[in-house]
Amino acid sequence: xxxxxxxxxxxxxxxxxxxxxxxxxxxxxxxxxxxxxxxxxxxxxxxxxxxxxxxxxxxxxxxxxxxxxxxxxxxxxxxxxxxxxxxxxxxxxxxxxxxxxxxxxx
Length: 106
Hints:
By secondary structure, the chain is mainly α. It has one helix and no strands. The relative contact order is 0.03. The mean pLDDT is 93.
């Protein structure tokens, strides 16, 4: 009877150990899966950061080009305003000269 109890206890202990091992294996598999998922997410995050940095650099370059174009436009506008002033002065002189010629011809 004692041997039967001992065999039963041994079987129960063995079953408990096997169940414990199964739980540990499952936990290790779950942990490994989680590690892989974390690494995958890290890679995705790194790629997203690189893409965001590239877009930021692109945006900064575009802003620089816009500022440069705006400055070129301001310079062009200033030049055109100066040319208009010069043309207005010439027109006044030509108009005055034309009027003098008209008076002389009359």
